[in-house]
Design brief:
The structure holds two protein chains of two kinds.
Chain A: E1 6-14, E2 21-29, H1 36-45, E3 73-76, E4 79-82, E5 95-98, E6 105-107, E7 110-111, H2 114-122, H3 143-153, H4 160-164, H5 177-188, H6 196-202, H7 217-221, H8 228-249
Parallel strand pairs in A: 1-5
Antiparallel strand pairs in A: 1-2, 3-4, 3-5, 6-7
Chain B: E1 7-11, H1 15-26, E2 30-35, E3 51-52, H2 64-74, H3 81-100, E4 115-117, E5 124-127, H4 133-150, E6 154-158, E7 160-167, E8 173-180, E9 186-190, E10 193-196, H5 217-224, E11 229-230, E12 235-242, E13 249-250, H6 254-257, E14 261-265, E15 282-283, H7 285-289, H8 299-312, E16 323-326, H9 332-350, E17 359-368, E18 371-372, E19 399-401, H10 419-440, H11 450-468, H12 476-490, H13 497-514, H14 529-552, H15 576-585, H16 599-613, E20 615-622, E21 625-632
Parallel strand pairs in B: 1-2, 1-10, 2-6, 10-19
Antiparallel strand pairs in B: 3-5, 4-5, 7-8, 8-9, 11-18, 11-20, 12-13, 12-17, 14-15, 14-16, 16-17, 20-21
Helix pairs in contact in B: 1-4, 1-10, 2-3, 3-10, 5-14, 11-14, 12-13, 12-14, 13-14
Classes of the chains: A alpha+beta, B alpha+beta.
The structure holds flavin-adenine dinucleotide (FAD), iron/sulfur cluster (2 copies) and FE2/S2 (inorganic) cluster.
Chain lengths: ~250, ~650
């Protein structure tokens, strides 16, 4: 029985993208300041289930271990979040780990989020500069505007907002809140604004912002507290204007 | 005939790798960019505090020349001076470029770049984007590279591991052996040159401030192929980290840059709530011992002082190895605005709010000043010839390195906020030289016999297969943990020859046990175990480089502290005396009474020590051991002198 000296983990596993999923349970000694990642590391050192069966270590993705790289996102006790900031002492037991369900599975808790990076390409999420040569200072930017942009620029492409979104599914093209928010970020920048129209056009078609049902769950799960609904509203307004412009000017 | 496009393989998509890729693409080259994970998740995102450039917006009189001096002094004069100087002169243009790329750098009321203070300097020289500067810089470069990718100039191979360089019959690097981490496939790619931008080796120490992929395997693999490894023993221990199970999370130097104070109770084993310890019973030891630099002494100095307070004076918090880092004298609004991100990290991992209570911190392994040896060519005027193909080339022709994995910029100790700079600088600076290298090649990679590539591939297929089939008794993850424990116990802040020698035997024992590993996973899809074993093999070799270098270097320089060889600088010594001493020295021996008592003999000791040890440590792989030799350091621009941070 798990007590305050042990940690009980229940992990959903799958060996291959087209394989079948199965559950395995582990019981580990509790250590001070443990988080879900340190538990998975303990399993690597002792890959033995609760029933005493020797198994392969669990596969998952991580890097920074301080919630800035976005890699370790998974579903923990039913909630999508980062495993590195999931402190064991704050979680009810058994701790249930599942991979994100909206992305193609690679193995165990590891999924493929390439779609998010592809979306960044579609909306030209960059600032097109003339070149890297030294042409002096960048644009003067008011601190208030900078602070607003900074909030958006902390998005670590983790995918929590997409996992939680009712519109976002494996078999559609919906771009999702994080992409819309990036459009807003680049449109806000004085140089970035020069490509504003191309970005808006990119999110006006299929899978674009019109498909957003405004359920607003995205903003609740974002670990970086990015004001996603504000971004969606603002980009929504901009696309409406763009639509009118396209109608009359083209 | 269409002009042949130069083509490169860049390994690693941290700041250095992305900067190099962007610059090469601008010069119309084609780049294959290889990384363990999506490059946007690289370790560089962890950097919090900022990036240095002497732009002097506050009328403090700062200049690239002062930045250069502070950096070489911070590194205890072990870095090649023309390189450091060139980097510092390029720094303002780098910051402006990053600003143009959209990095959300904090602003002044007028809308210009804001700067803050960092360790080892008296100027406000550090630009910052909230407290996630590395993340913001990395994203900006990642976006530029994504643009080139969408235009077809960059091919990304994420979820791929670099195993080694492909060397032709003349020992020239012609490509790389890669490992697809999902399918397990091992194959080669061809290029005019290969750039290693694979970051630091923190994982050799196990628990550190580094990320999980900072394993040092790529550069060690190059060393095993014959490349020189330099200054391995210079490992930076950061004074302020949060203790943890899986990682020691950094509390950035910016906390002290914004006025954070380090203290302990003057009483041993004091268990009182820190807020109840009255001012007069608090010992602000850095401020008392260094009135001018205070809490912003360089990292090596701060880590040593904390070590001394905790282990020798036994003044750690409640007798534990921890001291306070206190920001509670600032308003919550100010702290949220300037340090929000890092304070959140503290709260997330400890449950305490550093805006209300002092943080508890302790030193942790953080950065490697050493790395794979690389070359440079100066222009004769104390700067770098940017067109030279020698710049950033390792001792294997055609194999280049940039970023934390090279060794050239930080000497014996790195100053805060200088690494992000050196990473971007090297990535950009090496571009023109790489293009020149392609032009100079007398035979192109297309003409190299395919057997060269096939052999390299087959050799690695065999090797990785053998790792996968290991069926002994040892678990590789446990062995890795033990390696870290050996290094932390013996090759850290205070170094003693007896313990270093012991560590070397322990590493040898570990190497024997390595042969008895069991690969814990033998499946064929997305199996990280064989890679982990290969990385562990490299880390054992790297641990030997670090430890043997430390054992042989019998002096105290920067982060390499051997009390036995401390030259005992007199308390009232002024480093300028040494400049005077050197001038007089040209006219013959100096009498003891020409300087205050004890100073002349101290300066003689210093001179002799430099004569012997002001050298780059070079490790070369021979008979399964690092063979150590020494090379001259270029100190042609400023006279090395004793460091002092009063
Ligand atoms: C917590 C923390 C805070 C820091 N804060 C600051 C700061 O404020 N200011 C400052 O100047 N410096 C700071 N530093 C140091 C600085 O962050 C690093 O030195 C720098 O980011 C290293 O960048 P890089 O480009 O060399 O490598 P990294 O960003 O480490 O990237 C390495 C890349 O190589 C890839 N890679 C490695 N090996 C292989 C392989 N075998 N095969 C395929 N791919 C591989 C990785 O996937 C990754 O993409 C900090 C460091 C830490 C740990
Ligand atoms: S508002 Fe709702 S539908 Fe729109 S992105 Fe957010 S969660 Fe999805
Ligand atoms: S917006 Fe938030 S939840 Fe969505 S990917 Fe970015 S950081 Fe993650
Ligand atoms: S490991 Fe980077 S977010 Fe958790």
């Amino acid at each position: 029985m798990p007590d305050d000296k042990t940690i009980h983990l229940k992990i959903k596993r799958q060996d291959q993208p087209d394989g079948k999923s199965y559950w395995e349970e582990f019981e580990l000694p509790r250590k001070p300041r443990a988080n879900v990642i340190s538990c998975l590391m303990d399993i690597q050192m002792h890959p033995i289930t609760r029933e005493g069966k020797e198994v392969t270590p669990v596969v998952w993705e991580c890097n920074c271990l301080e919630e800035v790289c976005g890699a370790c996102t998974m579903v923990i006790n039913g909630k999508v979040r980062q495993a590195c900031t999931a402190l064991v002492d704050a979680l009810p037991q058994p701790i249930v780990l599942e991979p994100m369900s909206k992305f193609p599975l690679v193995r165990d808790l590891h999924v493929d989020r390439s779609r998010m990076f592809e979306n960044l390409k579609k909306v030209k999420a960059w600032i097109h500069i003339d070149g890297t040569y030294d042409i002096g200072e960048g644009p003067v930017i008011p601190e208030k505007q900078r602070a607003k942009a900074y909030l958006l620029s902390e998005c670590m492409t983790c995918g929590c907002c997409l996992e939680a979104c009712p519109q976002f599914a494996k078999d559609n093209d919906f771009m999702g809140a994080s992409t819309f928010s990036q459009v807003r970020l680049f449109n806000m920048h004085p140089t970035g604004a020069m490509e504003q129209e191309e970005r808006l056009d990119a999110i006006m078609g299929e899978g674009g912002i019109a498909d957003c049902g405004n359920a607003q769950v995205c903003v609740e799960v974002c670990p970086k507290k990015i004001p996603l609904t504000e971004s969606i509203a603002e980009i929504g307004r901009e696309t409406t204007l763009q639509l009118l412009k396209n109608l009359f000017l083209k | 005939m269409r002009k042949r496009k130069p083509q490169y393989i860049v390994i690693g998509g941290g700041l250095a790798g992305l900067a190099a890729t962007m610059k090469l693409c601008e010069d119309k080259a084609k780049v294959t960019l290889v990384s363990y994970q999506p490059v946007k998740r690289s370790h560089s995102v962890c950097a919090q505090g900022g990036i240095n450039a002497a732009i002097d917006t506050k009328g403090e009189g700062d200049s690239p020349e002062s930045h250069f001096y502070d950096t070489v002094k911070g590194g205890d004069f072990l870095a090649h001076q023309p390189l450091v100087r060139d980097m510092c002169y390029q720094a303002p243009a780098i910051i402006h470029l990053m600003d143009r790329l959209g990095v959300a750098f904090n602003r002044t009321p007028e809308g210009h770049l804001e700067f803050r203070r960092f360790g080892g300097t008296l100027y406000s020289r550090t630009a910052f984007a909230g407290s996630t500067t590395g993340q913001q810089l990395l994203y900006a470069l990642d976006e530029q590279v994504r643009r080139y990718e969408s235009e077809g100039q960059v091919k990304k191979l994420e979820w791929h591991e670099y195993l080694s360089a492909v060397l032709d019959s003349e020992g020239i690097c012609r490509g790389a052996v890669l490992h697809d981490l999902r399918s397990g496939e091992i194959f080669t790619v061809k290029g005019d040159a290969v750039v290693l931008a694979t970051g630091g080796p923190a994982q050799v120490y196990g628990k550190t401030t580094g990320s999980t992929v900072c394993n040092g395997a790529a550069t060690t693999s190059a060393y095993l192929q014959g490349a020189k490894y330099a200054n391995g023993e210079f490992i930076q221990v950061h004074p302020t980290a949060i203790p943890g199970q899986d990682k020691l999370r950094l509390m950035s130097e910016s906390a002290r840059g914004e006025g954070g104070r380090i203290w302990v109770s003057r009483k041993q084993n004091d268990n009182r709530d820190p807020l109840n310890i009255p001012e007069e019973e608090r010992y602000y030891f850095l401020e008392e011992n260094h009135p001018r630099f205070g809490n912003l002494v360089p990292r090596d100095v701060a880590s040593r002082e904390i070590h001394d307070i905790v282990y020798n004076q036994k003044l750690g918090i409640g007798g534990q190895p921890m001291v306070y880092l206190d920001l509670t004298h600032h308003s919550e609004g100010f702290l949220e605005h300037r340090l929000g991100g890092i304070l959140d990290i503290y709260t997330k991992f400890t449950g305490d709010d550093p805006k209300k209570v002092p943080m508890k911190i302790f030193p942790a392994v953080h950065y490697s000043m050493g790395g794979i040896w690389t070359d440079y060519e100066d222009d004769g005027n104390g700067l770098i010839d940017h067109k030279s193909p020698r710049n950033q080339m390792t001792s294997i022709p055609g194999l280049y390195a940039a970023g934390e994995c090279d060794y050239q910029f930080h000497g014996a100790n790195r100053l805060g906020a200088n690494s992000l700079l050196s990473c971007i600088y090297t990535g950009l600076m090496m571009g023109p030289g790489l293009i020149q290298y392609s032009r100079n090649l007398t035979s192109h990679v297309e003409e190299v016999s395919s057997t060269v590539f096939d052999q390299a591939r087959d050799q690695w297929r065999g090797r990785m297969q053998a790792f996968k089939q290991m069926n002994g008794r040892e678990n590789p993850y446990i062995l890795h943990q033990e390696l870290g424990e050996i290094m932390l116990a013996n090759v850290l802040i205070v170094r003693e020859n007896s313990r270093l020698a012991k560590a070397l035997t322990q590493i040898d024992d570990l190497e024997i046990r390595f042969k008895d590993l069991q690969c814990p996973d033998t499946t064929h899809w997305s199996n990280p175990a064989p890679s982990m074993i290969q990385q562990l093999h490299c880390q054992i070799q790297l641990a030997k480089i670090i430890t043997k270098g430390a054992l042989i270097r019998n002096e105290f320089r920067g982060a390499h502290y051997k009390p036995e060889f401390d030259l005992n600088q007199p308390e009232d010594f002024d480093p300028h005396e040494y400049v005077e001493y050197n001038e007089k020295r040209q006219y013959g021996e100096i009498r003891e009474d020409e300087f205050p008592p004890g100073h002349t003999s101290y300066m003689k000791r210093y001179e002799e020590c430099n004569e012997k040890w002001l050298k780059t440590t070079i490790a070369e792989y021979q008979n399964n051991q690092p063979e150590i030799s020494f090379e001259e350091v270029n100190t042609s621009l400023v006279q090395p002198r004793p460091r002092k941070y009063d």
